[in-house]
Amino acid sequence: MSVTFWQAILLGALQGLTEFLPVSSSAHLILAQRLLPGFSQPGILFDVMLHVGTLVAVVAYFRGRIVGLLRDAVSPDPAARRAAWRMALLLAVSVGLTGAVTLPLKRLALEGMDDLPRIGLALLATSALLAAAQIVGSRRGDGGRTLEEMRLSDAAVIGAFQSLSAIFHGLSRSGNTITMGLFSGLSRRAAAEYSFLLSVPTILAAALVENVSEYRETGHLVTSGSHFGVYALGMATAAVVGYFAVAALLRLVVAMKLQPFIIYTALLGTAVLLAGLL
What we know:
Layout: H1 5-18, H2 25-35, H3 45-61, H4 63-73, H5 78-102, H6 106-111, H7 116-140, H8 152-167, H9 173-183, H10 188-218, H11 228-254, H12 259-277
Helix pairs in contact: 1-2, 1-3, 1-11, 3-10, 3-11, 4-5, 5-8, 5-10, 7-9, 7-12, 8-9, 9-10, 10-11
């Protein structure tokens, strides 16, 4: 692996900004890494650890809700306890389906990191999904079901489509899951909040899988490797930038102001597609 501290800061900031804005952080990391001189990484462990930095941002931003869920899970109040464990079940269903679809296709995801036409098409698909979300969300207004009213089928649909974002770089995870939440009948806020909450177990699971893979290949975990300082710096940068990106996207989704992201992903997707074909 060859990553400098300045590259870690740059990629961490890019990850923190693009993980929650619906523009595909994986596509932006891949494109940026292609342009950085001397950059190299084995597999996708560095990218996954940058995602862990944005996980910290989500936990920090939603700390009140997360602490409340943990407290309610052991509450003497049966209603509160049922609600907390029901949310845990919904998240487990989503993450389980994501893993079930993604893990067998991991090789396809790794191969896609060098496939510019595939990334370009995925970015164009993100633009189309966001346009659909804009239409559905605008028509719904402030209506729709809350997180407490989510069904297992909603969680299943969101989890299944989240897997596509892990396989096809350029298909935004946040944009994908928020759109599927809106299509399932959730309110704007519920769709956005569930997308953010779902990122916590999803990123934890991905980090665990990649660290196990790293251990099998090198005999050590990321925390014991010689590059830990670079990983930590990138993660910290992603966490700080990601915290503000969460707040920005939540406001934009609730207000249904997705037009800039629709245009941006369409233009970037077209440029990447043409670059890959020429």
